[in-house]
Amino acid sequence: MLASPASSGAESSPPVEVAPGAWRLAIPIPVPLRYVNAYLLRGHEGWTVVDTGFHTPDAEAAWQRALSALGVGPSDLVQIVVTHYHPDHFGCAGWLQGLSGAPVVMLAHERPQVTAFWHDGQPTGDGLAVFFARHGMPAELTADLPALHRDAMAMVRPLPQVRWVEPGDVIAAGARRFQVIWAPGHADGLMVLWEPDERLLLADDLVLATISPNISLFPLGDANPLARFLASLRRIRDLPARLVLPGHREPIVDLEGRARELATHHAQRLDAALGIVRRAIEESGRAPTAWEVNLQLFGPQPDLFRTRFAMGETLAHLEYLVDLGRLVRVEADEVVRYALR
Question: CATH number of the domain at 262-340, out of 3.40.5.10, 1.10.10.10, 2.30.30.30, 1.10.3720.10?
Fold first, then answer.
């Protein structure tokens, strides 16, 4: 389960100016990454927020400290940009909007996911449990997936009113004019922001410095998210960025190099997944489920939060191999297995 939102014990560091008039805020989140990077961009008309954290007491306190440290009042916030629907980026958007009255801006491609994951009455948690059960996850784990989703839903309330933008639109933040780029993979509607004059890329979770963004196959998302992610990397890697500001951890100065490292990482993981399938068939004579591949690909997982993302990423790699023609999906007795083609 997610950690208790009132008891994570995290306390964020002071805002850091990472570019002229741009501050990075470390907002505590109740998941293993511990912090998400939010950004405050100063402009003549007011301040632009980029990403927000889960809505928890810890996050509220971190926002209040950061705004106070910079001498920013709620009414000084003029827009809240959310790069994608994941709760560590989306969760505080409605709360900040309530404080400031500022519009919340997201890419229109993300609207279906916001509705499916965060609006009341959607069977998302139950659907995820059924989906993972078909791929071999034990019943004692799938039984808890709906509650895990309800925990996350509680930490994105209140929901914001969103103004939807399109790829190619421009989002102004003071003198900066960011080009909106659609970069799916980590999320179907993930948006990165490119400022060509300053050569500044707000990359959120497309490119991270020391870890690989999670690329997961979920039942409501794109059927081949890893292919989408690798295409997004190819599309942005040649941008002449001087500075990349990611959604987690430290800034990046070599965009092309890091994008190539991430592509290599996934090539190695695809080879590993294919090898696991091959060995399972050689040793047992039976094609493995995604759950069985996951246990070897990622090893022991200490909580359901990490298990969900490990399973999602395992499936993303297996389905990519199916699309390449290296594996075939075989279903019997309502269980999906992966065999060599």
Answer: 1.10.10.10
